[in-house]
Amino acid sequence: MTAKTVLVTGATRGCGRAIAVELGRAGATVYVAGRTTRESASPMRRPETIEETAELVDAAGGRGVPVRCDFTSVPEVDALRDRVERESGGLDVLVDDVWGGDPFADFAHPYWESSLDDALRLVHNALDTHLIALHRLLPLVLRRPGGVVVEVTDGEDDEYVGAGIPYYLAKCGVRALGRALGAELAAHGCAGLAVTPGFLRSEAMLDLFGVTEESWRDAVAGAGGPDFAISETPYYLARGVAALVHDPEVSRFAGRTLASWTLMHEYGFTDVDGSRPDWGRWYADVHRAGRDPAEVDPAGYR
């Protein structure tokens, strides 16, 4: 991908950061867009920055270009678009990973007993941002036949698993965008789809459970619970996305939502530790079957 230009929204941390790095590893120029910089923190109050992500892209062999952008602001997205157009002329890959909903998600109360303001802010951060980004940035992708647009969500289908109505609406909405993009972009020789990780071992999740990437298994018997034994790093999904955009027949997946484990079975990659977590099979064999996760050996699922 040494001649390819990529833009990743929400690239400060998590899957966005990992996807930027893996596409950089393939040699791409990657615009790393997010709100947190070394000079200015976002409301997420996390330590990761877009500059760090860009440096990781550089170290992997690509070219990282950090650009601060709040995707709730149309003028800021316009400025980002103008910069990419001026410097690169267009985009080969757009990965839309904006989120920013964590501070407003309420998993503990019924929707009608939760904060309406928080619910609306979650949906605004999670869906309006995607609509703004797509409206302004899709024309840059359509200039290059064979372009790929990837929406990043949580969950491979619309089954409700009790995560709260606003969160559910946001993640279903992103899957719906993937379906619509699959249909809309096909006529222009481009592919649109959505992807999802499994139980994600993100920076924030590690902090929540009080462990590090080196000691994450300590949380299986504690705050993470038995399901955490099937968790995956953000690089697992990122390797799947890298395989997707390299696939000359990626259009066969247009409109679908592809999970990290589905991509693993398709392309044969591993997580950074050499394992192949299969959250989908674990969920089907354990949770849908009504079994106690603590009584199931996770070894066969990774």
In short:
The chain has 302 residues and is α/β, with parallel strands linked by helices.
List the helices and strands and how they pair.
Elements: E1 5-9, H1 14-25, E2 29-34, H2 50-60, E3 63-68, H3 74-88, E4 93-96, H4 116-142, E5 148-152, H5 165-186, E6 191-196, H6 203-209, H7 234-246, E7 257-259, H8 260-267, H9 279-287
Parallel strand pairs: 1-2, 1-4, 2-3, 4-5, 5-6, 6-7
Helix pairs in contact: 1-2, 1-7, 3-4, 4-5, 7-8
Pfam families: adh_short
Protein name: NAD(P)-dependent dehydrogenase (Short-subunit alcohol dehydrogenase family)
Organism: Amycolatopsis viridis
Q: What this model shows, in words?
A:
The chain has 302 residues and is an alpha/beta fold. The chain has a single domain (5-197, 234-271), classed as NAD(P)-binding Rossmann-like Domain (Rossmann fold), CATH 3.40.50. It has nine helices and seven strands; from the N terminus they run βαβαβαβαβαβααβαα. It has helices at residues 14-25, 50-60, 74-88, 116-142, 165-186, 203-209, 234-246, 260-267, 279-287, and strands at residues 5-9, 29-34, 63-68, 93-96, 148-152, 191-196, 257-259. Strands 3-2-1-4-5-6-7 form a seven-stranded parallel beta sheet, with helices on both faces. β5, α5 (165-186) and β6 form a beta-alpha-beta unit. α1 runs parallel beside α2 (50-60), α3 runs parallel beside α4 (116-142) and α4 (116-142) packs parallel to α5. The chain is globular, with a radius of gyration of 18 Å. The two termini are 30 Å apart. The mean pLDDT is 96.
